[in-house]
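Please produce the structure of this protein holding L-homoserine.
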Amino acid sequence: MIKKVGFIGWRGIVGSVLMRRMIEENNFENIDATFFSTSQIGSICPLFLGKNYILNDAYDFSLLKNMDIIVSCQGSEYTDIVYNKLRSLRWNGYWIDASSSLRMNNDSIIVLDPVNIQLIKKGIYNGIKTFVGGNCTVSLMLMALGGLFQNNLIESLIFSTYQAASGAGSKHIIELIRQMGYLYNIVSSDLNNISISILDIEKKISNSILELNFPKKQFGTSLAGNVLPWIDVFTESQQTKEEWKVQEEANKILNQKNNICIDGTCVRVGALRCHSQSFFIKLRKNLSCDNLTEIIQNHNDWIRVIPNDYKSTIKYLTPISVSGTLNISVGRIRKLNVGSNIFSVFTVGDQLLWGAAEPLRRILMLLLS
Ligand code: HSE
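Below is the modeled complex.
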């Protein structure tokens, strides 16, 4: 029987990527879709799916209750208001969520099927009804290092992230681009003037960030020409919440009874939509670099191992080269000279695809099948 699937937050940045992927894969063909809105109730859904869909009220519980599956990319605030109430009305459908609200609940599964398909299948069999996408950094890390986790090779893991503006939202991407333009305009006429020192150009740029008109409403400062080693709120553990999530969510996704220790620093950089991560990995046993590479490569179909040379690295191991693809580029693989069994790996993945929308699309397809 054709399932009724309700979509909320399909116009936001993650929702839009999800819609595009579903259209690309013809996923709307076999579902009865209903589109909800919190702001434009009654207007026509602008997605072209060969049919005019009217937007429904995202707080209309009688309509929500009719859905077999609800997919929300609307954010935590919406989930917090709607989810418990809907369940208390005895709605027993599947809830698929992009936000972090329900991630750590005992009765939810964080979905990343190339890594935890067995857990997902067992969950479906046992009646789990709530499936949540993981934090983007966590999902991209597990996609890249899945082979090492699967083979229980990791004793401990230290990360440094280089997270794109997209992770903070579409307004942040726009602000980053505005900042780039603002800074360029300040010095554009100086760039061809050989009598102006580069030190004076740099000074002008640094000072202009203090100007009242400098666009920094979202980031609070410049991300252009800068890095921000702080993402999300402070936690008791002295980590930011983004850093705290990595060990917690990763171990939940992997269904690890004995936590694998993972910690590091999360940093926002001026990339647009791909997150990069640098890892120092302490292995449980001695492996050669070739062994390690093979294990990483064989884990899933999206891994692209990039040779450890300059040309390949700048061509394939960068946010710009990965953007808009499902590729998980993994490179700079080498054994470090600081102790035994310690390796470094650098990886790049699209924050909006494997980091957000794709695991949701895939759990939806699995539930429909
Ligand atoms: N919290 C992430 C970030 C994105 O700020 O980059 C969502 O998983």
